Amino acid sequence: MKLNSEKQETQTNRNSIKLLASSSIVSLWTFLSRVLGLVRDIVFTSLLGAGVALDAYVVITKIPNVFRRIFAEGAFNQAFVPVLSEYKENSDESEVKVLVNNIFGVLSSVLFLLTLIVLLVTPAFIFIFAPGFYSEPIKNELATDILRITFPYLLFVSLVAFSGSIMNTYGKFSVPALTPVFYNLTLVVTAVWIAPLYEVPIYAIVWGDVRCRLYSAFDTNLSLT
Question: 139 or 213: which carries more pLDDT confidence?
Fold first, then answer.
């Protein structure tokens, strides 16, 4: 009886140490991400100035983020994680895989359909979220281009969040926490060394943003396998 008690205490201590280590790593990556995010904003402002390009980029990139709060880190994530945790505890691995595959299929289909709709009626979304742009043709044209380039990343960032939720459920925290660090660092590098080579620098930043999302989706899902 005493031996079992000692084993349980040892296991509890190990779990506590593991939790502390994971929390420390996540906190470190989160702090670094925030610092790089601040650096990114400073570099963007320095490169683009407080003009049409930066204004269009800041406003239009908020549109995918509205839907991101639903399909990525927001409502969907809060509903999915408890269900996955329950399946993990009460079902075998094959049933968990069936659940994950089914949800992945439905989520991908919904996001693909939404993306297709937005790409087909982009001006309508610009009018809904930024009606003031219609009085400025240059800004409106730039905003339309930016939304058509960036909105499809909603699909990939949502799948990154989906994979990250699965990894967190299985006690893997470092990769999801590291993704924003990579994202901000890549955008800083793009803005400093690549964007000045473009005639319209904002396009380098926009495409760099999309490439970051694609790589993050690939890397996170690869870490999941």
Answer: 139
DSSP string, the chain: -HHHHHHHHHHHHHHHHHHHHHHHHHHHHHHHHHHHHHHHHHHHHHHH-SSHHHHHHHHHTHHHHHHHHHHSTTHHHHHHHHHHHHHHHHS-HHHHHHHHHHHHHHHHHHHHHHHHHHHHTHHHHHHHH-GGGGG-HHHHHHHHHHHHHHTTHHHHHHHHHHHHHHHHHTT--HHHHHHHHHHHHHHHHIIIIIGGGSSSHHHHHHHHHHHHHHHHHHHHHHHH-
Tokens 């925290």 sit on residue:
173
Total count of domains within the chain: 1
Contact between 143 and 133 (Cβ < 8 Å): yes
pLDDT at 146 over 90: yes
CA pair distance 29, 37, nearest whole angstrom: 12
Domain with 48, as residue range(s), is 2-224
Over the stretch 176-186, which tens digit does the pLDDT of each residue have? 667 788 888 98
pTM value is 0.78
pLDDT > 80? residue 115: yes
Of 81, 111, 64, the C-alpha closest to 176 is 81
pLDDT (0 to 100) of residue 70: 82
